[in-house]
Design brief:
Elements (H helix, E strand, L loop, with lengths): L2 H25 L2 H4 L2 H7 L6 H14 L5 H9 L6 H12 L4 H8 L4 H34 L11 H16 L11 H29 L3 H8 L5 H4 L4 H21 L1 H9 L6 H18 L1 H11 L10 H8 L3 H46 L2 H29 L6 H12 L3 H9 L5 H28 L4 H9 L11 H23 L4 H11 L1 H4 L3 H4 L4 E3 L1 H12 L1 H15 L10 H15 L1 H10 L1 E3 L4 H76 L5 H32 L8 E4 H9 L3 H6 L3 E6 L5 E4 L1 H18 L5 E9 L2 E9 L32 H11 L3 E6 L3 E9 L9
Parallel strand pairs: 4-6
Antiparallel strand pairs: 1-2, 3-5, 6-7, 7-9, 8-9
Length: about 900
């Protein structure tokens, strides 16, 4: 493929990343912010050029040694639900923005320890970034079939690296507060993680099913290689031990690599996202691993006897078959692996470089006198320059030190070096006695072993070939450290961590440490106790004025943000805003406000500069911490009791409201009953008085009055009977006689007594039977009453020449009976209330219908006793009542 064409493909790809980052930052919708899969995918920044290209080379040349790079993280990731959750909480509470700040803060918030950790990370990660640049450069020239130019300005790979540096510098420094979440960058990284997996799957399927006839075909053909069995077994105790050590190296790296710390801890938005990551990320690695074997051994079969670099089989295989599309896609997948690692690593290193080296050792004095705008500009520019410089430095390192080095070896060396932070890192969250002295001495000893045993032979020998013999003789004098069965990298990893951990443990256990170390030890290890009260758990004694600290804060936050932050603090702890002096809580609060911008150590130095701290003995610290624990425990109990009282109060309020509501319902019911009874009683009394007082009434009129008395007496009796019947229904005192009946026959029995009234009103009655079966379990007498109540109600509101229609059908093992009538619709606000006792629409504009007003309420109770449902809905012609009956009602025997 033409160099310029591929360069423009890369340019288009970077433009896509810019677009995704821009949209994520601009919209900040729930899709981006609260998406656990974006968080989980961002963790796949772990899969760099080493895993994308290097593991294929290892699989082809060393067999199973490629698996630990994937298995190690998969083994330790489930423990993140405990480990990473704690680290996220510690970092959030203390505004930690980097690995260096996390470790240095725990051991007394030491400026020097932060600087040393930063230097360790620089020396470990810059070669690793160089490794990514090496992969980009070599694959670019491999795809374009051009040679690598020694002239940097004529090498297209140089311009690709510059573009990546510009992208990282721009989006990596959008927030001056380093603890802020970089939504744009993380979204772009998540996209890259998805694409590199997608492209490796495409390549894997191409190799398995296009180049060969399936996985079994590759395995069968590859098994004829003489070294196949040796490469795909542990090869005895030596292979097994090295394999286990490699798993330990990669398991350590997934926790301590600066880029992994950043995406897993600093960029974590919600703790619950960790629960998604602990299964999603191992699954991601598993899918990646599945295709390594067929690509590696497929490449060996295709290029058997040819001198090609097996690390680039993924590019060479589709290129061999002249498939430009897959070649370019695989190149973009590798580019994704490299870019994501370079971007995140450069950002994290720039934060550590600015917060732990440049600012605390050079610019703090200047920042004290500058304005907030100028300080913000300076901090941003420092980080932009650091990112750009780190990437260019890594590019130079690649050109002069690792040009002939394998991807695998450089990656493993970086892992071993960064693993030297493990004792201090894990000791920070699990061991109270861990100390600054133990950390420094152990770390120094471990690094010395790493640099003497790995880095100098790897990089110095490759650059100075003429001194190789002399230095080699010197190294041979240390052969007594050799461990049988272990490779050089495994051996150095073992010795360095053994010495490092041993010195860290012995020195920490034999020294007391200072009060600040012990204070932060308690804050780290008991984070769950202090997370809501961390400022109270910070121990400080001395004299501090709010105005002095406020002046410092305004230099970095600005006046408005500072006043807002102090106002929130005062509200939280109920502090008078006019208070001149302050305590340890405000000291900790202020340090946290500054920590994101200039790091925890620099924040401490600035606050110390305007306060006067009194020394506290370790014994006093332990006493204060013990009292703090007791106070927290007491506060927790009081809070729990308060919550119980609140809940009890809430329950009492709810019960009281229910009683008031029921009392009101009772009053309404009694008023309605009185009204309903008063109407026929009044009619009876009026007719009776007329008959008693006037003896000259004609016989026909007397008969009419007597008939009215009889009719109203019947109505009165009906109301009383319905009230008593409804009361029995509500108290489940009416037995049900449930048997199998023909529902159509039951409907007709209910309709028959009403046909005369229906015909009198010139209303039509129709029936639609869509049932496949007619026998259902119910109480027939109750259902006749149910149907009659609904049909009777429908008849009252159906106009002349109208229609009452019964429709019976089945749906999902349910019997559905719809009784529809033509006429006026029920007001929408009344639809849910028409089944209440004596309910009458507020919008009723017609003569009150005849009846007790309890028919629909009784109907509802009957169908509910059958575990069914009744509802009313308006249609374009009138109203439809729908009755739903379940298939089996044998269990319900009373209403």
């Amino acid at each position: 493929m033409n160099s310029f064409a591929l360069f423009f493909v890369v340019l288009f790809y970077l433009a896509l990343l810019f677009l995704v980052a821009h949209l994520a930052e601009k919209k900040r919708s729930k899709l981006w912010i609260n998406n656990p899969y974006i968080y989980a995918l961002s963790l796949a920044v772990y899969c760099s050029a080493w895993t994308y290209y290097g593991s294929i080379g290892v699989a082809a040349t060393s067999g199973l040694d490629y698996l630990p790079i994937y298995i190690g993280p998969a083994m330790i990731i489930p423990a993140w639900i405990y480990i990473n959750t704690r680290i996220v909480r510690i970092s959030r509470v203390n505004k930690i923005s980097s690995l260096a700040d996390f470790i240095a803060l725990r051991y007394g918030n030491s400026r020097s320890l932060g600087a040393i950790i930063t230097i360790v990370c620089l020396l470990a990660i810059v070669p690793y970034i160089g490794l990514q640049i090496k992969a980009i450069s070599e694959t670019f020239h491999l795809v374009t079939e051009t040679s690598i130019s020694k002239n940097l300005l004529s090498d297209n790979a140089t311009f690709v690296v510059i573009l990546i540096a510009l992208f990282s510098s721009y989006y990596g420094t959008r927030y001056v507060d380093a603890s802020e979440k970089r939504l744009g960058i993380i979204s772009a990284i998540a996209l890259e993680s998805f694409l590199k997996l997608f492209f490796i799957i495409i390549l894997g399927l191409f190799v398995i099913y296009y180049v060969f006839d399936g996985f079994a075909d590759i395995y069968q053909k590859a098994s004829h290689f003489e070294d196949f069995k040796e490469k795909n077994t542990f090869n005895g105790i030596e292979g097994a031990m090295n394999w286990m050590v490699l798993c330990m190296i990669s398991a350590t790296a997934i926790c301590i690599l600066p880029r992994q710390f950043h995406v897993a801890v600093v960029e974590n938005r919600q703790e619950k996202h960790i629960r998604t990551a602990i299964w999603f990320f191992p699954l991601y690695l598993l899918i990646f691993t599945i295709f390594i074997f067929p690509i590696a051994w497929g490449g060996r079969l295709i290029f058997d006897g040819q001198k090609v670099n097996p690390e680039f089989y993924s590019i060479l295989i589709p290129q061999y078959f002249d498939n430009t599309l897959i070649t370019v896609l695989v190149f973009l997948g590798g580019l994704s692996s490299c870019i994501s690692m370079i971007i995140i690593s450069a950002i994290t290193l720039s934060i550590m470089l600015s917060n732990n080296l440049i600012i605390p050792y050079g610019l703090l004095g200047k920042f004290k006198s500058e304005s907030e705008e100028q300080n913000t500009r300076n901090i941003t520019n420092i980080r932009k320059f650091s990112i750009f410089a780190l990437i260019i430095m890594a590019f130079v390192f690649y050109k002069y030190f690792i040009l002939q080095t394998s991807l695998d070896s450089v990656g493993l060396i970086s892992f071993v070096v960064i693993a030297q932070l493990a004792p201090a890192f894990f000791g920070a969250i699990f061991w109270r006695r861990g100390s600054y002295k133990g950390t420094i001495i152990g770390l120094t000893a471990g690094l010395a072993i790493c640099y003497f045993g790995l880095i100098i032979p790897q990089y110095y020998f490759s650059y100075n070939q003429e001194f190789k013999g002399v230095l080699r003789d010197m190294y041979n004098s240390f052969d007594f450290f050799t461990i049988p069965y272990l490779s050089k990298i495994s051996e150095i990893f073992f010795w360095s961590l053994l010495v490092n951990t041993g010195l860290f443990t012995i020195i920490s256990a034999s020294t007391k440490g200072n009060y600040r170390e012990r204070n932060f030890a308690e804050l780290y290890i008991d984070i769950d106790k202090y997370i809501l009260n961390h400022e109270n758990a910070f121990i400080w004694r001395g004299t501090a004025y709010v105005s002095d600290i406020k002046n410092i804060l305004e230099r970095f936050l600005g006046k408005k943000k500072t006043e807002q932050a102090i106002r929130i603090f005062n509200l939280k702890y109920n502090i008078d805003s006019q208070t001149e002096t302050t305590d340890s809580r405000f000291i900790k609060f202020s340090e946290n406000l500054l920590a994101g911008r200039i790091g925890t150590a620099s924040a401490k130095i600035l606050i110390e500069g305007v306060t006067k701290e009194d020394k506290i003995s370790l014994k006093e610290v332990l006493k204060i911490l013990e009292e703090s624990k007791e106070n927290i425990s007491l506060n927790k109990k009081l809070t729990e009791q308060s919550e119980e009282l609140k809940q009890l109060s809430h329950n009492l309020t709810t019960a009281n409201e229910n009683l008031i509501m029921k009392d009101q319902q009772k009053n309404d019911f009694l008023d309605t009953v009185a009204h309903e009874l008063r109407t026929p009683i009044t009619a009876i009394r009026s007719a009776g008085e007329i008959l008693a007082d006037d003896h000259d009434i004609p016989l026909e009129i007397k008969k009419e009055f007597l008939n009215n008395i009889i009719t109203e007496s019947d109505r009165l009796s009906e109301i009383i009977n319905d009230i008593l019947y409804l009361d029995k229904l509500e108290h489940n005192e009416v037995p049900l006689n449930i048997q199998k009946y023909n529902i159509v026959e039951t409907y007709r029995k209910a309709l028959k007594p009403l046909l005369h009234m229906i015909q009198q009103k010139n209303v039509y009655s129709t029936e639609i039977d869509l049932l496949k079966r007619h026998l259902y379990e119910y109480d027939e007498a109750k259902f006749i009453q149910l149907f009659q109540n609904i049909i009777g109600n429908a008849l009252k509101f159906t106009n002349e020449q109208g229609n009452i229609q019964g429709k019976l059908y089945e749906k999902e093992h349910l019997l559905i009976v719809e009784i529809s009538n033509t006429g006026k619709n029920i007001p929408e606000e009344d639809l849910e209330n028409i089944f209440d006792r004596f309910y009458q629409s507020k919008n009723q504009n017609r003569i009150k219908p005849v009846g007790s007003g309890l028919g629909l309420a009784i109907s509802k109770k009957i169908i509910e006793a059958h575990r069914g449902l009744i509802k009313a809905e308006n249609n374009k012609f009138g109203v439809t009542f729908t009755i739903i009956l379940p298939e089996n009602n044998r269990k319900q025997q009373t209403i």
